[in-house]
Design goal:
3% strand, 2 domains, Methane Monooxygenase Hydroxylase, Chain G, domain 1, mainly alpha
Length: 329
């Protein structure tokens, strides 16, 4: 149901879903757009390019797609994305005087702590979204009744981390997307607000989920090793199994998105790597992943091939098969 509003400029009655007044051309969300523009400019002036880009991305859906303002903001987002990518480009190291080992260790520790705090802040921002939080609780409730709350919430948290990996890479490329939405009994999804045309970009966004999922699984494994907790061990192994299944190159799974950027030769290399990892770990899920990957070898592809995508895929197969080695083998 839509609610009627009136144009602030000419008073024409408007449905809620409209973005500009058909009578005078005024923007329905002009006040909110001014707020977002001011925020974006302030962030950019202070050097917070990612926050500036986020503010412009929030403004984009409030403008008619065919308008000049929409085009200008799209150009600003693209410019900020290029600047962010340029800032992230590795630069030649400057030569410094040698520091004592303890000082180098302290500097490294501070860097790691800052990275972890940044990731924790990012994860907290996602879970504060109402639809993410309540759908996550519903998802955990399904497994709570069968396996108890520790395993249910641990599994939900690992899947959430996986999905936020996608969101992190989407933000890096300046692509708008919703927060993760859990589907009880199935998993979770991130709904995109725009189409991704570049297969390499799509592949990297797709594989970033299993990369973060692997991190969650390794974290659970370390906790299991430190506490001898069978629950943490189960969470680690199930996390490995779920993310390994996601590498199956079929339908909308992450592995399929990765395969879009691979040449035929690279696909053959991945099939060989899967066979080798299966021989070492005995993880039977690799039979499914490998058979589907073999089918994809014979499908037509125009991709020139992306070495980074291939290396990431093979590394994930090996690490996740090892992590899930006690499940389904």
């Amino acid at each position: 149901m839509t609610v009627a509003t009136r144009c602030a400029r000419c008073g024409t009655e408007l449905p809620e879903s409209i973005l500009s007044c058909p009578a005078c051309g005024g923007l329905v969300h002009s006040s909110r757009l001014r707020e977002l523009a001011a925020s974006a400019e302030a962030f950019a002036a202070s050097g917070d390019l990612a926050d500036a880009r986020d503010a412009w991305q929030e403004a984009l859906p409030l403008l008619p797609a065919e308008s000049q303002q929409h085009r200008q903001i799209r150009e600003r987002i693209d410019e900020l994305t290029r600047r962010i990518a340029a800032d992230a480009t590795p630069r030649p190291r400057a030569r410094h005087a040698a520091h004592p080992w303890w000082k180098r260790g302290a500097i490294g520790g501070v860097a790691v702590a800052s990275l972890l705090l940044g990731k924790a802040k990012f994860l907290a921002l996602g879970i504060l979204q109402a639809k993410t939080l309540f759908s996550m609780l519903a998802f955990a409730g399904v497994y709570w009744t069968a396996f108890g709350w520790p395993l249910a919430f641990g599994l939900a948290a690992s899947i959430y981390i996986h999905e936020m990996g996608h969101v992190s890479m989407l933000r890096r490329y300046g692509i708008a997307a919703d927060a993760p939405l859990f589907i009880p009994g199935v998993g979770a999804v991130v709904l995109l607000k725009q189409r991704i045309a570049d297969p390499v970009v799509d592949a990297r966004i797709g594989l970033e989920g299993p990369v973060w999922g692997l991190g969650a699984g390794v974290g659970a494994f370390l906790l299991a090793s430190a506490t001898a907790s069978p629950t943490w061990g189960a969470i680690a192994e199930l996390t490995g199994l779920i993310n390994l299944f996601n590498l199956t190159p079929v339908w909308q799974l992450d592995g399929s998105r990765g395969f879009h950027a691979l040449s035929r030769t690279q696909r053959i290399a991945i099939v060989a790597a899967i066979a080798l990892v299966f021989a070492v770990t005995g993880q039977r899920l690799l039979l499914l992943v490998g058979i589907v990957a073999l089918v994809r070898v014979f499908q037509a592809t125009t991709a020139e091939g992306d070495t980074r995508t291939m290396a990431t895929y093979i590394g994930l197969v090996a690490a996740l098969a090892w992590l899930s080695r006690h499940v389904w083998n």
